[in-house]
Design brief:
The structure is a single chain. It is built from 8 helices and 7 strands. It is α/β, with parallel strands linked by helices and 257 residues long. Strand 1, helix 1 and strand 2 form a beta-alpha-beta unit. Helix 1 packs across helix 8 and helix 3 packs parallel to helix 4.
């Protein structure tokens, strides 16, 4: 299937590892001019060097001017973004009873406000051209809140509500807005969550991991490249009638439609 991404500009946030890197690789394989970015500038450039047409940019998206600097660098390298993938690290694990107002402010700043800034920068050119893709890496926590991840559940739900509202506003302009929700994918973040849960429950890490895998009908954690392939499809031309949707890539973990 031709995804119609050849020559498109794709900006993938926080793509120096994990799911972001997997998405960047998948989009680049489809011919997109890809911007790889993150706080690890050397790693961003290393990954970009492995791709057909890509640049690596060092940026701290949590800085007030981070989104503007990143988008300016994207335009300088390849032109306005046709594809914007919103992604970023999750906040610290914590139960709902233990989070503070300061924790919530920090979570919303990282998981909502910075993404909104990037959308505001990328959207005008997308609407003018009549083509655009905005895709956010979410979490199954917006469907079923995850234990010990209250800040992530809160922040990702807020982003999902914003994007769902946005999708209806820009659909007639040829811009789609979707979320892709990972379940348990083999990334450093998943390993860190497993370790935190092990420490919280005073159980061995291997036991926590086995228990987690046992809840997944597919019987395993997902592979990053499987997630990247799903993301590339949602960013492609054949997905032009899919918008305002949250697609799960979770091996059947969430037991609802």
């Amino acid at each position: 299937m031709d995804l119609g991404l050849s020559g498109r500009t794709a900006l993938v946030c926080s793509s120096t590892g994990g799911l972001g890197a997997a998405i960047a690789r998948a989009l680049a394989a489809e011919g997109a001019d890809t911007v790889v970015c993150g706080r690890r500038g050397d790693r961003a450039k290393e990954i970009a060097g492995e791709l057909p047409s890509a640049v690596g940019i060092e940026v701290d998206l949590l800085a007030e001017d981070g989104p503007a600097k990143l988008y300016e660098a994207t335009v300088e390298a390849f032109g306005p973004a046709d594809v914007l993938v919103l992604n970023g690290p999750g906040p610290k694990p914590a139960p709902a009873a233990d989070i503070s107002a300061t924790d919530v402010d920090a979570a919303l700043d990282a998981m909502l406000r910075r993404h909104m800034q990037l959308v505001a920068l990328a959207l005008p050119a997308m609407r003018e051209r009549g083509w655009g893709r905005i895709l956010a890496v979410g979490s199954s926590g917006i469907v079923t809140p995850l234990p010990n991840l209250a800040l992530s559940n809160l922040g990702r739900a807020a982003l999902a509500a914003y994007l769902k509202s946005l999708a209806a506003e820009v659909a007639s302009d040829g811009v789609t807005v979707n979320l892709l929700l990972p379940g348990r994918i083999e990334t450093d973040r998943t390993a860190a969550v497993d370790a935190a849960n092990a420490a919280c429950s005073s159980r061995p890490l291997a036991e926590v991991t086995r228990a987690s895998v046992a809840t997944i009908p597919a019987g395993r954690y997902g592979r990053p490249e499987e997630f990247g392939a799903a993301a590339a499809f949602l960013c492609g031309a054949p997905a032009s009638y899919i918008t305002g949707t949250a697609l799960r890539c979770d091996g059947g973990l969430v037991r609802s439609l």
